[in-house]
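To assess whether ligand presence alters the predicted conformation, the chain was also submitted together with pyridoxal-5'-phosphate. Input:
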Amino acid sequence: MTDLAQIVGDNLARVRERIANAAARCGRSPDEIRLVAVTKYVDAALAQAVVAAGCHDLGESRPQELWSKAAAMPGDGIRWHLIGHLQRNKVRRTLQVAGLIHSLDSLRLAEAIQADAAANVLLEVNISGDESKQGLAPDEVASLLPQLAELDRIQVRGLMTMSHREGGLDVAQADFARLRELRDRLVCELPPSVSLDELSMGMSDDFEAAVLEGSTIVRVGSALFEGLDATSSH
Ligand SMILES: *Cc1c(COP(=O)(O)O)cnc(C)c1O
């Protein structure tokens, strides 16, 4: 375990350095960018190694996996992020654990959250238009915001997206630029109580491009667990 912890610690340091370098390239402070370590590939022991190495924001894409990791890792001031699709029948248990839901993608889901508890949410936007992706179409967001503003337990904090799977870094950066531009248009007519300060964008293959386009949260999994045999990929 100590070897594994060492590898995870080194990987984390390298990712943080890459974030800092990308931030420096565009005149941003690295403090503006929160790293969420995506632990969906690894067990709770390895996730704990990330926490021990100093990253307290952890993300899971499946609600049940979030619940079981959170139960296995009590204490330590971990902030849990749900980054994948949330089914309405999983809202209650998820809200008991997750501090930020990155994947709000419908009014129905928002209403299910409102009926249960207060929550911080990001709106997931399918900026690339991939059929296989979850998320709101970019032109659906403007009409949804006033409806969400009426739900007093829903705190909208920003937008989340994933880039095109294929196409490389230039395509990814263009996707991230489009999310930022969408946000910049929406803030002109923002309902009170809605904030779009957060942009959750960037994964292992493209987080530097995301930082250059204004990402405030990057969600990094594989790059943190490179060089380990013990990973079980979903
Ligand atoms: C898995 C996942 C990530 C992390 O992906 P990596 O490429 O392993 O860094 C980020 N965001 C979402 C929504 C994911 O499902």
